[in-house]
């Protein structure tokens, strides 16, 4: 695991710039920018990307096509609309607020598309103090593209997510090989990664954790502080998948949820 504190992955206009080269892997990337008065211009090159407002709104022109994203007040305000950018696209983004661009090295070119907020599948996962909300805006089942997978997770204060701990680094019919980025807002919280080595990092807004291999989880939200993370995943398989293997020592936890109520702070989401 690599823990990247807020501010240490800044480059040019980007508050966070994680490329495959910077991460010392092959596929997954992420950029985060605080938009102000000046536009941000970029070429997607070999990466397909999403434009995802974290807080605020933006307009973009991609290869001459204009799109407006309504955005949201914060990551804790529910899903947002977003845009998909293919490889080899020229893009200009204007607006105000914090904008994330999850990315993956890709080979197939898909059309530029708009993703409405009301079409984002929202899932309540777990139960009890393992209850969390997953916004599956770019999961394999929800949105079609080449390599990129991205979801958002909201963990209420005092709860655990990314739990039971799991991994996706061994190819099999039950597990996909994926590089994974965690980008955090809110907090403080804690992120554990283990298997090849043990790491436990305190995380808060703007921090990043890279997971090239090994078990990861839990993500723990400190009592009184909700925790958000954006997961960006990509790997070598032709078919996108989020398949994983639980740590067998902790897999029994899933069965325990059947007898626990869902945390009422998230129970109203359908």
Automatic annotation (TrEMBL):
Gene Ontology biological process terms, A to Z: inositol catabolic process
Keyword Acyltransferase: no
Residue intervals passing through the bilayer: none
A Pfam entry, by short name: KduI
Keyword Amino-acid biosynthesis annotated: no
InterPro entries: Deoxy-glucuronate_isom_IolB (IPR024203), KduI/IolB_isomerase (IPR021120), RmlC-like_jellyroll (IPR014710), RmlC_Cupin_sf (IPR011051)
Keywords in alphabetical order: Isomerase
GO MF entries: 5-deoxy-D-glucuronate isomerase activity; glucuronate isomerase activity
Domain of life: Bacteria
SUPFAM superfamilies: RmlC-like cupins
Catalytic activity, EC: 5.3.1.30
Name of the protein: 5-deoxy-glucuronate isomerase
